[in-house]
Amino acid sequence: MFSEFKHSLRRLRGQIIGWGIGLAIYGVLMVSLFDSIVGIEGFEQLIASYPPEIMAFFGDFMAITTPIGYIDIYYFTYMTFIIGIFAASAGASLVAADEEKGILDLVMAHPISRTSLFLGRLLGFMTATAVILLIGWLSWAIPSGGTDLELTWIEFLRPFLPLYGVLILFGTLAAVLSLLLPSSRSAGALSGGLLVANFLLTGLANINEDLKTIVKYTPLNYYQGGDAVRGINWEWLGGMLAVSAVFALIAWWRFQRRDIRVGGEGGWRLPLVRRRALRKHGSNLKEPA
Amino acid sequence: MNDSTAILIKGLIKSYGYVQALRGVDLEVKQGEIFGFLGPNGAGKTTTIRCMLDLIRPQGGTISILGKDPQEDPVWVRAQVGYLPGELSMESNLRVENQLRYYSDLRRNRIDWNYVHELADRLELDLAMPIKNLSKGNKQKVGVVQALMPRPKILLLDEPTAGLDPLMQQEVYRLLREAKNNGATVFFSTHIMSEAEALAERVAIIREGVIVEEAEPSQLVSMVMRRVRIRFRQPVDVAPLTSIEGVSILSQSNGNNIRLQVEGEMDDLIRALAEFPVSDLETEHPSLEEIFLTYYKAGD
């Protein structure tokens, strides 16, 4: 398992560096802009003049001039689906992408169990996500010293934990989908799409009360965002990690049972494939034993 | 199964949806032999090999590799096996050496790197090259090296010389014979008859998911069919010869010369010919390739 974990991290190295640099630049930029933005004369009146729908979409929009409101609206609200792109694509690629390329065939012919391979890769994905968020956290915590963003390093760290929970949840969802759908790309796109849809639905539920009955069944309803600076809701975070564990278990179970495919196998159009095969082989085809 | 059996397959059945790839494959390979697995594309060669490694799961039948069931103990079985897939895919961004080191990691680093370098030298493979820059033949060399480098007890090779030039093919044959001499069992699939004749001690022919013949290449050639040319001293009526089981006339000219095809043993034909004024008789063995084609035409 450790060799696969090491290998996964090595493969995700480029993504860790790319996302890390992006988050670091964005974090440092937002920290440095805080004093300027809240110091703008008439900023609060400007915000108050925004359409009420936009204000409601982002929750407590007037809190933007406070440190917690600022990091919530300018960072943690968006980060779910921005880094969610990484989580969905990495989760979907956990094993299915290598399978589609035919790489997994030779890897699995080595003395490694399916469980070890899956766990090694899952841990690699979780560690890579943690490292990216760690860089994000440091990009806020380190430069904040000379600004009015008067939060401690621990307070900066807290909202990153629920964000980690969301990313792991959608990453493991993508992993499950990649083992159910015929391609890892469709799994990544679907889980990413669900994440964005959930984001929009959560925002719209602040405008339309009727949507709240649906939203309470979605993960982002239990995502604290910047509000976690005040304290983490461990039940929500635990619930998200528990659902992630269930997704990971389903993905593991599917991987245990399935045939390792090689390039070109699998697809949506099974009835069509069957018709073509019947036409080609005629009576030589029999029902599976 | 006895101690000398490396691979034992009984009644193996595997379907992909409605396509039945294997319909009851039976096979026994002894330890230390080089076994050729012949068949055209889609006959079930790759499916059989992938079942042996628990990469795919059969719907019926049993497999035993050195006495263990690959589904029950896949890690142990794979530790004994070096595998070369028919469709070789590797991580294109890695250099050859890093790719091999990853495979070595998966084998808990029980690899002799001096041997890896020796293999690379013999196959003229540059370990510093990125995989993505390699030609098909050079990628195949990486596949051969990774299969041989753990000095496995069993080599499962799916078309091992695909894409290699004739010189490299000969080098691979030498490497496989050396592996055999060191005690390894070599099981390779191919549709190249000359490869099977050059390398295999025994061969099996698979057609539409069933083993249709299993024998030594020389036995296969002698047991399946012969062509017989007979010259008689005078024109004769050959009707009695055609009534012999397995004998058919291929051609006949002016009553003196006849070409027959004989399937199976020659005893009955020779006894019958004692009644004829035979001046010359010549038998001709078909090549393994012709036999192979005969088996396949029989299925059409």
Structure description:
The complex is a heterodimer of chains A (289) and B (300). Chain A is an all-alpha fold. Chain A has one domain. Chain A contains 13 helices and no strands. In chain A, α1 packs antiparallel against α4, α1 packs parallel to α7 and α7 runs antiparallel to α12. Chain A is globular and about 65 Å long. The two termini of chain A are 35 Å apart. With 300 residues, chain B is α/β, with parallel strands linked by helices. In chain B, strands 5-6-7-3-8-9 form a six-stranded mixed β-sheet, sandwiched between helices. In chain B, strands 11-12-10-13 form a four-stranded antiparallel β-sheet. The two termini of chain B are 34 Å apart. Chains A and B meet through α1, α6 and α13 of A and β1, β2, α2 and α3 of B.
Q: Can you tell me the residue ranges of chain A where pLDDT is under 50 for at least 5 consecutive residues?
A: 282-289
The chain-level mean pLDDT of chain A equals 85
CATH architecture of the largest domain in chain B: 3-Layer(aba) Sandwich
Strand content of chain A: under 5%
Q: Approximately how much helix is present in the residues of chain A?
A: over 70%
Gyration radius of chain B (Cα, Å) is 23 Å
As for the CATH topology of the largest domain in chain B, it is: Rossmann fold
Number of helices of chain B: 11
Helical amount of chain B: 25-40%
Query: What can be said about the biggest beta sheet of chain A?
Result: none
Count of extended strands of chain B:
13
Distance between the termini of chain B: 34 Å
Number of strands of chain A: 0
Taken in chain order, the helices and strands of chain B follow as EEEHEHEHHHEHEHEEHEHEEHEH
Tell me, what's the shape of chain A?
globular
Sheet with most strands of chain B: 6 strands, mixed
Strand order of the largest sheet of chain B: 5-6-7-3-8-9
Give, in order, the helices and strands of chain A: HHHHHHHHHHHHH
Share in β-strands of chain B: 25-35%
Beginning-to-end CA distance, first to last residue of chain A? 35 Å
